[in-house]
Design goal:
- Among the domains are: 118 residues, Immunoglobulin-like (Sandwich); 90 residues, Immunoglobulin-like.
- 0% of the residues lie in helices and 40% in strands.
- It is built from no helices and 23 strands.
- A hairpin with a 2-residue loop joins strand 2 and strand 3.
- It is flat and about 85 Å long.
């Protein structure tokens, strides 16, 4: 059975790059002490840089205790505290990724005067070695304490099983990204061949027929329990394959070599009888009990006498 089978350097800043704008505002999370945001640069292959400033209600803020964080989903990818440049506070953010380009970057700001964390609706695509903003024209991150941000659901992996073996349950909270912390409820719409039920955040998917094989979908929806009732949805696939017999491994040809010679590689699939969609091999080594013949002139070893 096979189921659910994952030129620029930080600290160097250039002037004259075209400023990229993104419209949007921010939403406050619960009041907090300054967040302990840290990033391990050694965990990532690529980086880009952003020179930013922060506005609160349309007015530039120079609060010395502000903190800017850059995220992909719920994962922190960059963080910066303000640096005073001619009386204005700038944020020199190095952002990290293991994908050369395309990841969607979101912004959070710890705003010291009010002590909340705001999450921006602004976003940027990650691009290796890029620089966004400069000192004359920084990238502005807008802080607004009234916006209602929609939830997000990240991709739920497709699942495959065999007839008679249930799908594993799925904790939908694992795939929820809620930038403003609004409570959500989950619902699901199953295809004709599947049934779906949700208890809290746990999704259970079951074939309607115990003998059905094939692929169908379940649409999963997360809806905020607010007046705007903003929502997000994803549609994973679920596959049931026919049950198949256990694998049979036929005889593997023996090989013998003199000391220092190499054995010949052998494809184990040549001895395998199996109709399933995946397989894995393992092995263990046991010493041979066979007494090998002694060549002429080779001294015979004797066990010590006790």
């Amino acid at each position: 059975m096979c189921t659910r089978a994952i030129c620029w350097s930080p600290g160097t800043w250039l002037i004259g790059i075209i400023l990229v704008f993104a419209t949007g505002y921010l939403r406050a999370e619960q009041p907090v002490t300054p967040p302990n945001w840290t990033v391990d640069p050694g965990a990532y292959q690529f980086n880009m840089s952003i020179i930013a400033r922060v506005q609160y209600l349309g007015v530039p803020t120079n609060a010395s205790g502000n903190i800017v964080g850059v995220f992909v989903g719920n994962e922190l990818r960059g963080v910066a505290t303000p640096v005073d440049v001619s009386g204005n506070m700038f944020y020199f953010v190095t952002v990290y990724s293991n994908v050369a380009s395309g990841e969607n970057l979101k912004f959070k700001v710890y705003y010291q005067p009010n002590d909340p964390v705001y999450t921006s609706t602004q976003s940027l695509p990650f691009t290796t070695n890029a620089l966004v903003g400069d000192i004359p024209s920084p990238y502005w991150i807008m802080v607004d304490n009234t916006s209602d941000l929609p939830p997000q659901l990240t991709t739920i992996p497709n699942d495959t099983t065999l007839v008679g073996i249930p799908f594993e349950t799925i904790n939908l909270a694992t795939y929820l990204v809620s930038d403003d912390g609004d409570p959500v409820t989950y619902s699901a719409v199953a295809g004709a061949n599947l049934s779906a039920s949700i208890s809290g955040s746990i999704l259970t998917v079951t074939p309607v027929s115990g003998t059905w094989t094939g692929t169908d979908t379940v649409r999963v929806i997360a809806t905020e329990q607010t007046s705007n009732m903003k929502s997000a949805a994803v549609t994973p696939k679920f596959t049931v394959n026919a049950f198949y017999a256990a694998p049979v491994l036929n005889t593997i040809p023996s090989q013998s070599r003199n000391t220092g010679q190499q054995f010949t590689d052998y494809d184990l699939d040549n001895s395998l009888v199996f109709s399933g969609s995946c397989r894995a091999f393992d092995y263990y080594v046991t010493p041979s009990a066979v007494q090998l013949p002694i060549r002429a002139g080779q001294p015979r070893r004797r066990a010590p006498v006790r």
